[in-house]
Design brief:
With 665 residues, the protein is an alpha/beta fold. Among the domains are: 33-166 and 209-262, Glycosidases (TIM Barrel, Alpha-Beta Barrel), CATH 3.20.20.80; 392-593, 3-Layer(aba) Sandwich (Rossmann fold), CATH 3.40.50; 606-663, Golgi alpha-mannosidase II (Immunoglobulin-like, Sandwich), CATH 2.60.40.1180. The protein is built from 17 helices and 25 strands. The strands form 5 sheets. Strands 10, 11, 12, 13, 14, 15, 16, 17, 18, 19 and 20 form an 11-stranded mixed sheet that branches. Helix 5 packs parallel to helix 8 (210-238) and helix 8 (210-238) runs antiparallel to helix 13. The protein is globular. The structure holds alpha-D-galactopyranose and zinc ion. The site of alpha-D-galactopyranose has 10 residues, from loops.
């Protein structure tokens, strides 16, 4: 039967066996129905090169199976055992500074080490052989939070092979990397070196040859993906029906998650907002994870209250964890899982929150809140698998992320995720569902596509966007779009290159503004505001101006434009607009595109919907520490979480979460 998985990372191997029974008692009290085990146990289950010892894991699996817990079985390959490093130092990574690492830490394997590959694959296979027929295993969790890069000799050799595969000839490679610049022409494949700080990488992680660095990102993402696939295939060879995942990390830069998603049976991810992370960022991250496969995902980890690894690890306030959990479900989560179930006694995560705290009993605030949520989730089975709908698509593209942040100039403060969030936030705050999509998505499903700072555009994308607008879609794009191709070489003939025709403008120059500098700007109707970060010097071709700069030597030139193209409209923002102007232009663009909000009333509450075949689930979330007014249209509806009628005279308390279930019309 479908149910919301509720539980999290469980490390009984760190505790004496007497404690395990006590854990089971407490899990029962909190309605915990699942546990993720064996995440960092490689050293325990393989104490030396030729010895495997599953005796403790057998007991853990038996106990959890007797207790009818769902098991998320991890493969343990996220942290290498000491003996492996000692015997084969090549399993370790060489970092961006060129230092070869010793034993220590985790997430530390060289992805191209054949020794690492051999032992990781063998371990995954042994686990599948031993536990593959256990019906309690709901998911296989390969490795943990894959990421990072290695620049060792093995990786360099593998990079050359990847390049040979990709470019076929050195002429093509030299052209792609524009190696005539600084006389970097490559005549033999083995002249190529990995672009870290010892090579063409720069100390601020930018690159003298962004085309090369971009290729290294692609190569590294592929290499680590191959590690994942290798373990996945080892499991599936033995358990063909296994559902395999690995825990992703939202907008993490290093891996092209859209590519990864194709190899994963279900997306799972770890959500760790800081005390001051805007909720719109968390919502965007969830939407990105949901958007990878356009399917519900698993929340693999969140903390019940506190973290340890951020600079300021504030407690979650009463109700905040519950509200954060409902936000997860609202955006497509089908599980709520914590890191971790019992708080660790030593090492760097002893201050990390857990369901069971150091005091060891259930009479704690955190445990009480976990148990309250656990009870509510037992009544929400019908949510599992429910889908989302949106008329707005926001493009997120890892290659563009890399490209934009590798480039030298024009402004170091241009950060990809901040830029995407700036536009996502408008839709979030206006209760307009917006999905995160890739450049390969079917644009025709959306009325409105938002593509900020689309700096790097692969071949064909310009045509695809032009077609979308021609057919009646509305496109919003901005400064730093349409600049380079997939090798970071500029589209000649005027910015924004492949978007020039559809946006009906020519950008002649791009000014950069330091943090203390702003331009004043004004809309046609007289509303004034500011423009920051960058300022495009725009010439109108077929577009009309929405407003002009009123300061600087380009005063009088357009700062934002709209172009009627075919049956659609293309908006272009030439500068990072102040919120009042961004809101005003988008309010108009959205209404012109006939995009409908879920609610017309202004409120700070988050309103989000999911849909099953028969039902609409409307989440009303107060993610703030202040009371909010209940929007009139929800008065008289029943909140199924507490089974209470919502009353218009009653305010929504801090961190309150409501769920209304309606029949689909
Ligand atoms: C990550 C890891 C976990 C744990 C948590 C702590 O998400 O996957 O093993 O270290 O961080 O927040
Ligand atoms: Zn390496």
């Amino acid at each position: 039967m479908k149910k919301i998985l509720y539980g999290g990372d469980y490390n009984p191997n760190q505790w004496p066996e007497e404690i395990w029974q006590e854990d089971m008692r407490m899990f029962h009290l909190a309605n915990i129905n699942s546990t993720t085990i064996n995440v960092f146990s490689w050293a325990k289950i393989q104490p030396s090169e030729n010895v495997y010892d599953f005796s403790e894991l057998d007991k853990i699996v038996q106990l959890l199976s007797d207790e009818k817990k769902e098991i998320v079985m991890a493969t343990s390959t996220g942290a290498l055992p000491a003996w492996l490093f000692k015997k084969y130092p090549e399993v370790g990574r060489t970092d961006y500074q060129g230092r070869q690492h010793k034993f220590g830490h985790r997430h530390n394997a060289c992805p191209n080490s054949l020794v690492y590959q051999k032992y990781a694959q063998a371990l995954a296979e042994k686990l599948a052989q031993r536990y593959g027929d256990n019906p309690n295993i709901a998911y296989w969790h390969v490795n943990n939070e894959y990421g990072g890069e290695c620049y060792c000799e093995n990786c360099t050799k593998a990079f050359r092979v990847w390049l040979q595969d990709h470019y076929k000839t050195l002429d093509q490679l030299n052209a792609a990397w524009n190696t005539e610049f600084w006389g970097h022409t490559i005549y033999e494949w083995d002249e190529i070196v990995a672009p870290n700080e010892l090579g063409d990488g720069m100390s601020d992680y930018r690159s003298a040859f962004a085309g090369m660095s971009l290729d290294y990102c692609r190569f590294n993402s592929d290499a680590i993906l191959n590690n994942y696939k290798m373990e996945r295939d080892a499991i599936k060879k033995i358990v063909p029906q296994a559902a395999v995942t690995t825990n992703l990390m939202g907008t993490f830069k290093g891996l092209d998650y859209f590519k990864w998603a194709k190899e994963m049976d279900i997306i799972s991810w770890d959500n760790y907002p800081a005390y001051n992370t805007p909720w719109s960022i968390v919502a965007m991250n969830h939407e990105l994870m949901r958007g990878l496969k356009d399917q519900p995902f698993l929340l693999m980890e969140q903390t019940p209250s506190q973290q340890n690894w951020q600079p300021y690890n504030s407690l979650k306030k009463p109700g905040q964890m519950r509200a954060q959990s409902y936000q997860t479900l609202a955006h497509g989560g089908d599980s709520i899982q914590f890191f971790q179930l019992r708080r660790s006694v030593g090492a760097c995560e002893k201050f990390h929150g857990a369901v069971i705290e150091h005091v060891g009993h259930e009479h704690t605030r955190v445990f009480g809140e976990v148990a309250e949520l656990g009870e509510e989730l037992t009544r929400l089975d019908e949510l599992v698998g429910a889908t989302s709908q949106a008329e707005v698509g926001v493009i997120f593209d890892w290659e563009n992320y890399w490209g934009l942040e590798y480039t030298s100039g024009p402004n170091i403060d241009l950060r990809y995720v901040d830029q995407i969030h700036k536009y996502y936030r408008y839709f979030y705050e206006n209760h307009i569902p917006a999905q995160m999509i890739s450049v390969d998505s079917d644009f025709s499903k959306y009325k409105f596509i938002v593509a900020p700072v689309l700096y790097l555009m692969k071949a064909g994308l310009g045509e695809k966007m032009t077609e979308f607008v021609k057919n009646g879609g509305t496109l919003l794009t901005t400064y730093m779009s349409g600049i380079v191709n997939e090798s970071d070489n500029v589209y000649l003939g005027g910015y924004p290159g492949p978007l020039r025709e559809v946006s009906g403008i020519w950008v002649e120059e791009i000014d950069a503004l330091a943090p203390e500098q702003t331009n004043t700007v004004q809309l046609k109707n007289g509303t004034s505001g500011t423009g920051k970060l960058v300022a495009d010097l725009i010439h109108l071709e077929t577009a009309e101006s929405l407003g002009e700069y009123t300061s600087n030597f380009y005063a009088g030139m357009p700062m934002a434009t709209v172009n009627h193209f075919g049956a659609g409209l293309a908006y272009y923002f030439g500068t990072d607009l102040s919120d009042n102007l961004l809101n005003e232009i988008l309010d108009q663009a959205v209404s012109q595109a006939n995009v409908q909000p879920l609610l017309n009333e202004k409120t700070k509450l988050e309103i989000t919907q999911r849909f099953s075949q028969e039902k609409v689930f409307t989440f009303i979330l107060n993610l703030s520490a202040e009371e909010q007014v209940l929007p009139a249209e929800f008065a008289g509806k029943v909140d199924v979480l507490k089974n209470q009628m919502l009353n218009s005279k009653q305010n929504v308390p801090a961190f309150a979460s409501y769920l209304i279930v309606d029949k689909r019309s």
